[in-house]
Every structure is written in C-alpha cells, then in structure tokens.
C-alpha cells in the first residue's frame, strides 16, 4: 500500500488540497506535490506499460531521470504526450492519461508480448521480422506499428505561446543545489554577471533530504541564507524551473524555462528558451542514482532508494509500508533511516558487500533495522506491484535462501555524476574506480575560441559526492571560473559541510553475480526501451564490441530518457561480457537536450504569420482586392489567377491566356530579380558569369542569358540590359535574386577581387509590369509620352521615357511570344502606373493575368522555366540552349565542367515537346517507360515530364520533357504510367508549340 | 555556435550571422585543366582533425567574405583575415605555430 504519511512532507502544503484526474479518475493531492508524489499518495502504483513487452511499470525515480512514469497531460489544444510525472508540478484541474496500453492500463493485450519475449531479443528489429517475406506486410508491420512509439501526437494546434530570450553572462551556473548555490555565490562576490538556473522549482537539490550540516546549520537554513545573499547581489540572476538544456560551441548555452506548466491560468508564454552566451559555464548538475540489475527490478514498487527517501521526506508519501532496501553502497542506509523515522517498516537492508557499510550502517543498526551483508535479491515477484522478494547470496547463481513478503523495494547501485552538459561540447571523462563512476576529467575540458577551458564541473557533477567535498569543490569552481572570466576572486570563506565516514562501494553490475539466464532475462537495464541484461550479453556474443553499436542494436539508452538510469549499467554489462575494463569500452555520446524540450520553445514566436516575412510588391493590395488566388514564390506571394464571377481557378487561367493571346493582358512582374552590375570590368565579369557573351551587348539592347554553377549545371536565367558602357541590369528569376546576387559577390570578392565591379540588388527598388498581347502597343500609345513603335523600340531593345506622366524604363522583351513590353518604374509609383494602365487598357479588353497563365504561355512557346526543366542536374546543352552558349569565350563558370565525359554523354536526356494522343494532360513528373527492368526489378525509364499544362491556345494538353535521344525521335510515341495505374501515351514533338517563327513578338 | 570576428567590420559575429563557404584557399581550375585537376578543385577537400582554414561570409552583416583559421577539434580560433589572398597571412601562420608547433595544412605550414 502506497499512502500519505503524517509529520513528513517539507514541500507540500496540507492546507491546500488540489484535485486532478488520472485516466479519468478524480484524485486529490496537495499544493507542492508532483504528479508522481500525488499518484503514489493515492496508491496509484501502476502508471504505464513498457514499450516492447507492455509490462506493468511504476514510478522508479523522483526527478528528470524517470523512465516509466510518462503521461499525456492536458486535453485538446493543450495536450502534450510523454511528460514525466516526476517533474510535473501538481495544479488544480490537472488531467493526465497513462500511455502505451490498450485497451486499458490495468488490462493490456500487448502484455502478451511478454510471453513471446524470446522472439523479441536484442536487435529483434534486424532479425525477427525478416522471413518469410510475405509476413512483413500482414503480420510484422501491423504488429510493430501497434506496439511502436510512446504516447500519441497531439491533434490540435497548440494554444500556448512561447518565446526566446537572448542573454549574455560572464558566468552561467547550471544547477541550483548546494554546489550551484555556492559556486554562484563565490563567482558573484567577484562582481561577475552570474546567471544561476535550476530545473526544478526548489533550490538546494538533495541536501535537505540527505541531511548533514553546513557551517553548523541544517542544510535548509544554509540554503535560505545563501539564497538571500545571492538575491542581494545585483549582478546575480536566479531562475528556477529553468533547465540547462545544452552547452555548445564558444560558450553558447540553451536554457529551457517552464513558466506556466505549474500554473496554466497564468498569463504569458508557457515556455521560454534562453539563448545564452556565457564567458564561463559551471555545471553543478548533481548525480543520479543507478538501479541494480536483478530479476523483477521493473515490478511496480521497486524504486531508487534516493527516490523513496525523496517521496517520504519531501512529499510525505510512503511508496510501501513494508520495504526492503538493497544496496552496494552506504547511501541507501540514509533511505532506511529516513523510512524508519517516517514510521515505515524497513524489513531488511540487503547489503551486497560482505563487510557491509560504515557509520550510516551503524546508525541504521542502532535504530533496530536488520542488516544482511553479502546478500542480494534473486528475484522480485508480483504482477502490478511488489509482492515478495527472494533473497540469495550475492556470490552465487541466485538460489533463494528465503522469501520475504513486502510491498516495496528501494535499490541503490551507486551514483553517476550528471556529466551530460560537461560532455556536450567535448568535455572528456575519466573512470573513478573507488566510486565506480565516470567523472569529468578537468585536464580535458571543453575549450572555447581562445583555446582555454570554458566549462567547469562542480560538486557531485564533478564526482564529489559527499557534502563537505561538494561544497569545497563548488567554492573552488566558482572562484576559478570567475577568474577565467576575467574577475578577481575574493577571499571569502569556504563553507564547511559535515563529512560522514562512508565505507567504499563495491560495484555490482548483476545481482546475484552469477545469475542464471532466466534471472538475467528478467533483469532490466533500460526500462523505457525494455532492454535487459540478457539482451546486452547476446549483443556481445553476436560480435558487438563498440558501445555505440550495441546501443543502436539493442536500443539501450535510446528512449526519451536517453539512458539516464541505464547507460552505466548497460556499458558495465557489455564490458563484463566482452571481458574488457569499463573505461576501455567507454560511454556513448551525450547529446543535447538534457531532457526533451518542447517544439514550441524551439520555435518561439516564429509561427503563423511571423514564421517568415511576407514580401509584397507595390501592387499586392490591388491583387488582394481583385480576388487573386496566391502562389508562394520564395518569400513573395504572386497572384496565381484572378477568378471572376464564380469561375474556377482553372477556367480563370484559361480565360487569362486566351485574352492575352487575342487582346492584351497585364502581369505584375515586380518580383523578378534585378541586379545592377557596374564598373569598368562589368562586361568582362558578366562574360564569366553567363554562358553567353555579354560584353558585346550594345547600350540600349537586351540579351537573354544563362548562368551555370562551376559544376556546369544551369542555375538561373534572365534578360540582361546594357544601360551604358559600364552598367548592366541583370534580371534573375523571382526565387533567384538573393542567391544570384550572393553568387556574384562571392566570385567578385574571393576570385576576381582586383576587378573594378560592384553589384547592387535593386529588386525591391522597382516595380515591373508586363503589358502583353497584340493590343499592347495600343494601350501604351493611349497612355502616351514616348515612342513605342517597332522602329524606335524593336524587339530586345529598351528605352527610358514617360508613360502617362510617370518616368519609366521600357523593355521590349517577351516571355509569352506575344508583342510585349515590360515597364519598370520606381517602386513608389508602381501602383499608380498599374492603375493608369488598367484605365487605359479597359477599352482594349485588358485583363490581369497570374503566374499560371504566364507558365502556360511560356510552355506553348517552348521557353524553359528554372526549377521545372532544371533540377540541379540539367545543363543548358540538355535543353537545346546551345545557341546561348558562346563558342568564342575561353572561359565561363561551368565551361570546364561541361566538358566532362558525363556532360558530353550522348545518352543524356534532352528536351522535347510532348503531345498526348488523346489530347489529355500528362501527369507532372511522370516517367516514360522503356523495355526491360533494372537491377532492382523496376521498369527501365527513358524520359520524364518536366512541365505539363492544358493549353487553351491549342485546345489540348501540352508538355515538355527530357527524353533519351529525344530530338532524334520526333514522332515516336512514349508511354507514361501514372500513379493511378493508367498509361498516358504521348508523341515526341518540337517543344515550340506556338508561333514557331516568332512573328508575333516581333511586330 | 561559433563566434568569429569579421575582419572587415570588426564585429564578433554569432554563427547565425554567418554563412559557411567551405575550404579556403582553393585554386580555381577552368578550361585547359586536366580531369584530375578539375575533379580535385571541385570535390577534393581537406577534413582535418585540428588546424583548418575555412571561408565564411558575414551574410547578415557587412556581406563580406573572410577566412578563419581554427582548430576543428578544440574549436580554438587562431584568427580571421580578409578573403582577398591566396595564402594565410604570416601573422596568422605564426599565431598557429605558437599554439600548434609543427602544424601543416595542404601546402602550408
């Protein structure tokens, strides 16, 4: 029976009852409880089912290391899965659901997996489910899907808000136990800006529970006094409920603050991510107790000894009334004494050491607790909670000497310093034989930009596990780190912590030492991922020698707790199986975050409308007012089409194309990239950037150009206008403006830095409007102000002038094959010009058109589109664009690459037009199949569709594609299977479907 | 999250302000180069555990390209310098020698 006990519970307020629900059941706890302590107080021993075998699981720990008690918290838009009950502070109205069970926690069908445990050994993913092949789809995969994954993803949009903080500090102390407090105080005294963060709501860590004295005071009093001193220092900032999540390069630290998880009614953000730049970092992150590996160590009611002590002292909860303590070190005696003091029956302390412990054992003995040395647990039995314990000799195979009925077991396998944050940025560890643990190696600390260490571990996190040593170490760490940060340490007194005479620990990696296989197969290492001693031993027998490989093969330490309890026991088991020393086997890599942090905190404010900026052209509002449907292009939003009178978008697009081809249309082309390139060497520079010759272009003229990467692949295209002898205006694709500008700057700054050229990205300085169609000239003439005749402004020329009283630069260029003018105007006058054009165009039937009509018209003309016909593997030669590649130039970016054998291979797929036999539209991206199959048994292919549209001009589906020997196969019919199983047939034709001779654009 | 000092504007720039540009001091090979030269120019890169020379651009700052000499293992930065050079400047090479006597990187030492 797990119950509340009187006269204990330093953190709870019995005058403030709190109601909450667990699996729909209404329960009561007190203010100050964690969800875990409140569940235990309500005798809710069973809190979840394990991942693989669906075994009943209870609470094991009292803090961040808890592997079992994961629950779903909240409902609807505040639901969050996989929250640890041990770090969830109780509040009124909290709702929690247990996870990983079906149909109910008490009765779970998946538990049948336990009976088939021998089919789910270590590495079962890789071997059990391979044969017979046909079983995969109908047996194995449904089984894995049913049992895989912990918790359920929330379905609703997160209703909470989150934010980021940017902070600079000379020194960040992570961990607010007595070590962190003392380190912060020692550093704060020097005047350094200190930030002290603590993951829980309470300061002082374990010290108030573990007892002893500091400077003659109870730890609780010393903590209160030190907190007062720290709060009085203006240069020290303290934050509770703020976890040190990760330590990164050059003193970058992430903190994860939970602001309202414990009080959801509070206004403001729920979580805050602290993005900290620290001069020095002190990790005072404490230590975590290790479980012992004995059969049935996962039965609910088996708990870490320190956790059981926490529940009794902090929350006034007795996880059992009749407890057996099992240990290999002295610390567990503190639990025995604390439980006894709380009025709980401590039936036995089983000390695996033949000679037992030191002063603490004597104290326990004096209180009448029975102590059996050299003893071990052979096996714990019980279904959903501990029923009895079989006791054996530690040196043996597990033959039971006696069986004792009890309802809880407190275990201690020693302590492991929390070295995670020390290790994140490269801090190395050494093995401490005396305490059987890895501890930070101060000689190999993480180093910063200046090559000097920037992380110092302090207190228990540094392997100093006794109160006196912890405080002395933390004091020294605080002073040394402040000095490293450039501050002068003051000679303040080091606090004196009491020292208890403790007997040495004896490592126990398996209990009993020579446990039989049926016991080893029930001795859990990783509770959350269901990895047992026998699994790691099997991996070793199968040849796994590297701890990193064993981890991935067995999934040891790969669950959401990242092996906080299991890592050391697991690698010790591996090293014993391999017959190697633990330091030789080593640890797996510690990676941030220390415990999982919310996606919301990572995203901060960057969600919804502020996820990324929206770029608007000067004419954006007009499009919006006229019902445009949008197409995102880069960070811009361009009108896709303007449906009228209830038209479907498709019908609107068809109308826009027809109207432009028959009368006149207008397009907002402002998003087109515009880069000014100027200087005496500008022509020479553009000759190297473009495949064509640009230096021979005459001022007043335009030329279409292609840009390739140094690897030869086509990256952008656009029209270049020569403004004057030294000035060119390069148009890029909408999405290309920024990276093409960066590309130009890269070559100018890093290769041809002695050339006199500068570039400016003037994309947003101009609005640009295309007026397109047979009546385009009439519209412009109506506006008046400049000569737009064929004679004065022929195709591919440009001129400055005015239209309707607005200063413009007018380009005779065409992406549609029609008579076309692109009018550039200062951005501030873009909307005015657009309005005047719509007025002037009304009598000619001018209508705006969107990007889809633009695409269809360019495809009808066989013009390529970057991103459709190109994908980073296509060269201009593939696209029939040889005419745009200068043969005269010695060099251009990509020229040498295009001479490589793969680029000149005659079997490269080449651009062709495709015309469906039935007039339908080919599926986008469809492949043309060829005879035979490849090595994987898939159909061979001989081409693919790159662009495909319904053409209103031709009244049929048209497409462009890349086809093997395509240009030599005109008239041949290809087959394109669609994803729906239907096969479309299309004939290879010339890619120019419309006005092959270009008569319309030249008028 | 490295911090590198931009040698142009003098700002100690966070990595989020910077864009990485791969290995520094590559010699461009164009038309006329052998297949091997061109392959190595495009693809063959150093991957040292220790002293390394990299290109960075102060992309969300002054926009300039610069070079950084740093240790890939300890994250120590030996110095940054403008990109308009074909080899690490003497002062940088001496700074590295002071910390890593006997270092070599490609043809430099």
From TrEMBL, chain A:
Keyword Glycoprotein: no
GO molecular function: sarcosine oxidase activity
UniProt domain Aminomethyltransferase C-terminal: residue ranges: 910-995
Keyword match Oxidoreductase: yes
Domain SoxA A3 per the UniProt entry, residue ranges: 522-604
Domain GCVT N-terminal: 619-889
UniProt cross-references to InterPro entries, sorted A to Z: 2Fe-2S-bd_N, FAD/NAD-bd_sf, FAD/NAD-binding_dom, GcvT/YgfZ/DmdA, GcvT/YgfZ_C, GcvT_C, GCVT_N, Sarcosine_oxidase_asu
Alphabetical keyword list: Oxidoreductase
Homology family: Belongs to the GcvT family.
The protein, known as: Sarcosine oxidase subunit alpha family protein
Organism: Antarcticimicrobium luteum
Automatic annotation (TrEMBL), chain B:
GO biological process, one term: tetrahydrofolate metabolic process
Record GO terms (molecular function): sarcosine oxidase activity
Pfam families per the UniProt record, alphabetical: SoxD
InterPro entries tied to this protein: SoxD, SoxD_sf
Region forming the signal peptide: none
Name of the featured protein: Sarcosine oxidase subunit delta
Organism this protein belongs to: Antarcticimicrobium luteum
